Amino acid sequence: MRGVKPEMKTDPEAITDLDPPGWLSGDAKDEWVRVMPILSKRRILTAADVGSLENFCVAMGQVREMERVLQEKGAVYQAGDMLKRNPAASIQADAMNRARLLAAELGLTPVSRSRPAIRDDAAPEEDDPLSLGGLFGWQGGLGGAVQ
């Protein structure tokens, strides 16, 4: 199956260089250093996205930290005569899920990069064939009728 890859829309206000916040863990800072050049090159990261980037890096840091715990302690432990799951496995799974969702938001997955960008320069409503176009006094979206 072949198609045309959609063009990624760049933002004129994109952040192209930003140091990691000092409060990030070492693993989270390492992730920041890894992904910031990717996002900078694409020119899609704005001030509104910095929180998502921070949260993504925190989640990836937790994934790595919990992996070290699991490597050292194991995925299960003996509790009396029962085996129990190491809580680090649940923490890691939760962090992986958060990281996956945030990676998609930031365009860091193959699928998210293949989706068309949201455009702010959309055609005016009067050019939209699906618009109500002022029919019955209705002006614009879900806001209701305008007097």
From TrEMBL:
Residues 1-21 are annotated as: Disordered. Residues 1-12 have a biased composition (Basic and acidic residues). InterPro entries: Phage_term_ssu_P27. NCBIfam families: sm_term_P27. This is p27 family phage terminase small subunit. It comes from Celeribacter indicus.
